[in-house]
Design brief:
The chain contains 17 helices and 14 strands. The chain is α/β, with parallel strands linked by helices and 427 residues long. The N and C termini lie far apart (76 Å).
């Protein structure tokens, strides 16, 4: 990790930039080509892309009921219990988010309402590859079911032998998701956006992924399908003062670095001693990881900043707008109250980011790459639409008419004005 001692504010934006593996233009062009192939060729494109990109020849894109059932034998009872416990915590937190319908009489005879209506068909993208994220199945399928989505479609990349990780299949079955397809990458996003002979078209797509998946979601979100948010490579920022413990901080940084080579981990501290201790501890813990090579590459673009005071820590955190923000300080609540931009915040020395990834109850599908300045993480509302209603009596329309007709006349919209006056003339 690179350490910066008291960097000037004018250098912060450059120092806080996210790592890029390739030029965005190159990725966008490649993704656009994949999208067009899926749009025009459907399943044939999915099979060809799976062979070329994933190295897997597939005759059937759909996961069968037998494959889902067989996953049960592949998981230990310990893991099944853990997944069930995590599901319960996630369900408890998201069920508490159910919105009470709003009904207000804005003036006598004019009643306005707002109700939450589930999105009919949603698509879930679950990353596979070297670390199949079955925890993401819980984070997306549980709120989709609580919201009342009628259909849930799941796409995930196949393994080299053409199967799907049993952890993903078992977790999906636990959540009642049975429409599962062996499709990954940008082509999976395109398939759910357009629909193919095998994969149904959905109304909204959820889930994190690499730069190709994120780019596909953004391109198709412009015209074809709704998306949850931009959610690319994982990232964490830790705010630590002199009370922070170097082994804890190092473990938090490495828990993000092991996600992928384009992940980023950042420490901001007022303590030069902590910065040095964390750097040493990261080197020690790195050698103990099964994904050491992946984490080591991510650390090349990770940072340690020593700043003057808490005010600079807060300002740097708000500029970075981290997906995960861990506040390992003596008074974390006071500091967190000043944070405006973050996907999810973890308070104190005993709240590692990994609990949010798996089982505390909050959602781990969060905005990355600075999008936390404007986006929320996935929550129950993400799977719903808010529809408003209004009902007027004759008296209500008569009372509101002067306001509406004056405004319509000022905007030159005669039909708007007449839609009111013709009714009043009738009565």
């Amino acid at each position: 990790m690179k350490t910066y001692l008291y960097p000037p504010r004018e250098a912060w934006d450059d120092l806080l930039s996210r790592p890029l593996q390739q030029e965005n233009e190159t990725i966008t062009a490649r993704v656009a080509e994949i999208i067009e192939r899926v749009r025009t060729e459907g399943d044939a494109a999915l099979r060809d892309l799976s062979a070329r990109i994933d190295g897997v020849e597939l005759s059937l894109l759909t996961v069968t009921a037998d494959e889902i059932a067989a996953a049960d034998a592949a998981l230990s009872d310990e893991l099944k219990t853990a997944i069930r416990n995590a599901r319960q915590h996630i369900e408890t937190f998201h069920r508490a988010q159910i919105m009470t319908p709003v009904r207000v009489e804005t003036l006598p005879g004019v009643v306005c309402e707002q109700r939450s209506v589930p999105i009919h068909r949603v698509g879930l993208y679950i990353p596979g590859g070297s670390a199949p994220l079955f925890s993401t199945v819980l984070m997306l399928a549980v709120p989709a079911r609580i919201a009342g989505c009628a259909e849930v479609v799941l796409c995930t990349p196949p393994r080299k032998d053409g199967t799907v990780a049993p952890e993903i299949l078992w977790t999906a079955g636990l959540c009642g998701v049975t429409r599962i397809f062996k499709v990954g990458g940008a082509q999976a996003v395109a398939a759910m956006a357009f629909g193919t002979s095998s994969v149904p078209r959905v109304n909204k797509i959820f889930g994190p992924g690499n730069r190709y998946v994120t780019t596909a979601k953004q391109l198709l979100g412009l015209s074809r399908v709704a998306i949850d948010m931009p959610a690319g490579p994982s990232e964490v920022m830790v705010l630590g003062d002199e009370t922070a413990r170097a082994p804890f901080v190092a473990a938090d940084l490495l828990s993000q670095a092991e996600h992928g080579p384009d992940s980023q981990a950042v420490l901001v501290t007022t303590s030069p001693a902590l910065a040095e201790a964390v750097e040493r501890e990261v080197a020690v813990q790195l050698r103990q990881l099964g994904r050491e090579a992946v984490a080591e590459r991510a650390l090349e673009e990770s940072r340690i900043f020593v700043v003057a005071d808490t005010d600079e820590m807060v300002e740097m955190a708000n500029r970075y707008a981290a997906e995960h923000l861990i506040v390992e300080m003596a008074d974390p609540e006071t500091v967190a109250a000043r944070i405006e931009n973050a996907g999810s915040i973890f308070l104190g020395h005993y709240s590692p980011e990994s609990v949010g990834d798996y089982a505390s109850g909050t959602n781990h599908t969060l905005p990355t790459s600075g999008w936390a300045v404007a986006y929320s993480g996935v929550n129950l509302d993400s799977f719903c639409k808010k529809i408003t209603y209004q009902r007027l009596t004759v008296e209500g329309l008569r009372a509101l008419a002067p306001t509406v007709t004056a405004m319509a006349t000022a905007e030159g919209l005669d039909a708007h004005r007449r839609a009111v006056t013709i009714r009043l003339t009738d009565v």
